[in-house]
Amino acid sequence: MTTSTTTENITGLQSATADWASDQTAFKNVPWGKAMMWIFLLSDTFIFACFLIGYMTLRLGATEPWPLSSEIFALSIGGQPVPLLLIAIMTFILITSSGTMVMAVNFGYRKDRKKTALLLLITALLGASFVGMQVFEWTKLIVEEGVRPWSNPFGAAQFGSTFFMITGFHGVHVSIGVIFLLIVARKVWRGEYDNGTRGFFTSRKGNYGIVETMGLYWHFVDLVWVFIFAFFYLW
Fold first, then answer.
1. Are 95 and 222 in contact (CB under 8 A)?
2. Ramachandran region of residue 148, left (φ > 0), alpha (ψ -120 to 50) or beta?
3. Which helix (H) or strand (E) holds 144?
4. How many whole angstroms separate alpha carbon 186 and alpha carbon 41?
5. Which residues contact 29 (CB under 8 A, 6 or more apart)?
6. In the chain, where does DSSP find H-type helix?
7. Total Cβ atoms within 10 A of residue 179
8. Nearest to 95, CA basis, from 211, 184, 182, 223
9. How far is CA 7 from CA 14, 21, 149, 219, in A?
10. What is the residue-level pLDDT of the chain in tens, covering all 235 positions?
11. What global pTM score does this model have?
12. Beta strand 80-82 with 75-77: parallel, antiparallel or unpaired?
């Protein structure tokens, strides 16, 4: 009996084990890193969904008035408050970073090393700008407005705890993404994926799949922000 015939006769759990152990790809030639990223993003979706559902429950059940987003998130320019100006800029920056990430993945498929690295760097810089603006927003709320996780001078005390928890959790995701983007951009620029250099965040020689995997993570972070923007700032 040949090896191929033996493999075809394996069924059940042994067959599944043989399929998964035969190569570094699974799910119809999807790389392991990409498959694991999808699983991670699925689990993260449940976490953010629970946070936002909890936020809606607290807001709808609050006995005290909920703060008006147009007032608490206003930015003064020339002595005149402009509602949601900073938040609009942050949203524009993050959406723009999705565009640069798409182009980075596109040039990664073409194995254009310099353009891929440059676009990854631009994406990371946009992400860092977003985090910096979020730090400014937090500082304004805490220092100038007196909002705390356990209290809120504008109304319902639950506002502070839900706001800092959800936006902080998202900000951590963006910060981690920025770090990994810089790492991948450096490795792309140095030609490590072209040469098949071994080390952290490696892949097969000539394979830029890690760029697409990072793109999945970054687009997820951007998508989550759309929901946060709608629930916290527009509602």
1. yes
2. beta
3. none
4. 24
5. none
6. 3-9, 12-21, 32-61, 69-72, 85-109, 113-139, 158-189, 192-195, 209-228
7. 12
8. 223
9. 10, 13, 59, 39
10. 444 444 445 566 776 666 555 544 555 566 778 888 999 999 999 999 999 999 999 999 988 999 888 888 988 888 888 999 999 999 999 999 999 999 999 999 999 999 999 999 999 999 999 999 999 999 999 998 899 998 888 889 899 999 999 999 999 999 999 999 999 999 999 988 877 666 666 666 667 889 999 999 999 999 999 999 999 898 8
11. 0.85
12. antiparallel
Domains in the chain, start-ordered, CATH in brackets?
A: 28-234 (1.20.120.80)
Q: Please state, in angstroms and rounded to a whole number, the distance separating the CA atoms of residues 107 and 129.
A: 24
CB atoms within 10 A of CB 183: 16
d(CA 70, CA 83): 5
Could you tell me the two tokens for 27? 């799910």
- The SS3 assignment for 80 reads strand
Q: Say if residues 65 and 153 touch (Cβ distance below 8 Å).
A: no
